[in-house]
Design brief:
By secondary structure, the protein is of the alpha+beta class. The chain has 2 domains: 223 residues, Naphthalene 1,2-dioxygenase Alpha Subunit, Chain A, domain 1, CATH 3.90.380.10; 113 residues, 3-layer Sandwich (Rieske Iron-sulfur Protein). It is built from 9 helices and 17 strands. The longest helix has 30 residues. The radius of gyration is 21 Å and the shape is globular. The chain binds FE2/S2 (inorganic) cluster and fe (ii) ion (FE2). Fe (ii) ion binds next to loops.
Length: 342
């Protein structure tokens, strides 16, 4: 079998590479915003950051769901704070220009009349939105449909009752590492014995299995007793994840805040959200985040080594790191960069 190597470390630390990734990966792909149930009622919105570009999804009074850049047409201020909420007009906090939920400029107060502003010339800039099985996605400038991007994931999750779950909890984790270092970590189980001793003890690691194909890295391992995970962890191109629990799941999006800073935004979903299950749900969320936290320092230390130039690419395990190779190849193709060693 061919020996594959890790990506060139320069691709993890140069701001120019992140700029290229923004344009060629993040703004051309469908990005998971969270549960579609966040935007079912008129006026409900979600505002999110996509690799530095602010986006809004808002349900109009006419029932239509629309997406916009979260950028005022006047001098570019951010319109809505990140997160979910409810609004009537979208009012810019800077000089109070206001927009309707269709994106039309309604008013530019105190602007003056000579020359006057023509509102039709200054609507919010639209982006694309789509939903799939209860999940809301946005794309600034998509190169393919959401279903095409989802690829193998559609069949993989066909038997899971995703849309019957209720969103009941969010979390955000931030750390000092490039988004690809964290993704490299997520798409392999090789580090479980070293990094997650309790997790390791709770699965049959010898039976850990990874496949990588058509936008999906699928990792499975038979759980032993008392593991909250159901033994299946999925990563989808370019940057979202879905892990199954007993009676629920989480999703997350891995979002670069800078070349050396990344956030991972989690949503937790459960079949049973009754008060009686609250303690168990909290425990599941906390156990999940404890596993994530075990990864963060390793990723930050790895980033420092890459940034210091003290690392040359090492070999990837064909048994355990084919997900890493798959992800890195997708990045390499998206960047069209033939300079890195293969
Ligand atoms: S930047 Fe929004 S009103 Fe001026
Ligand atoms: Fe991990």
């Amino acid at each position: 079998m061919e020996q594959f190597f890790n990506l060139d470390p320069s691709l993890y630390v140069h701001p120019d590479v992140l700029d290229a990734e923004r344009r060629r990966i993040f703004w051309r792909s469908w990005q998971l915003l969270g549960p579609a149930s966040d935007v079912t009622e008129p006026g409900r919105y979600v505002a999110a950051d996509v690799a530095g570009l602010g986006v809004i999804a808002i349900r109009g009074r006419d029932g239509a769901l629309r997406g916009f850049r979260n950028v005022c047409r006047h001098r570019g201020a951010r319109l809505l704070p990140q997160g979910k909420g409810q609004c009537g007009l979208i009012v810019c906090p800077y000089h109070k220009w206001s927009y309707s939920d269709t994106g039309a400029l309604v008013q530019a107060p105190w602007f003056g009349k000579d020359p006057a502003i023509i509102p039709e010339d200054w609507p919010l800039e639209e982006i694309h939105l789509d939903t799939w099985r209860g999940l809301l996605f946005a794309a600034v400038d998509p190169v393919e449909s959401l279903l095409d991007q989802l690829g193998d994931t559609v069949a993989e999750l066909a038997g899971e009752p995703l849309e019957s779950y209720t969103a009941a909890g969010t979390a955000k984790v931030e750390f000092d590492a490039n988004w690809k270092i964290y993704t490299d970590n997520f798409v392999e189980g090789y580090h479980i014995p070293g990094t997650h001793p309790s997790f390791y003890a709770a699965i049959d690691f010898e039976a850990f299995s990874t496949t990588a194909h058509d936008g999906l890295v699928r990792m499975t391992a038979p759980p032993k007793d008392d593991l909250f995970y159901r033994g299946k962890w999925l990563w989808m191109w370019p940057n979202w994840t879905l892990s199954l629990f007993d009676g629920g799941m989480n999703t997350s999006r891995i979002n670069p805040l800078g070349v050396d800073r990344t956030e991972q935004r989690y949503d937790f979903y459960f079949a049973d959200t009754s008060p009686e299950t609250e303690a168990a749900r909290k425990k599941t969320i906390e156990s999940n985040l404890a596993v994530v936290r075990e990864d963060i320092d390793i990723c930050a230390d790895t980033h420092r080594n890459y940034a210091a130039g003290s690392y040359t690419p090492g070999p990837l395990s064909a048994r355990h790191e084919l997900g890493v190779h798959y992800f890195q190849e997708r990045v390499r193709v998206a960047l069209d960069d033939g300079s890195a060693p293969v």
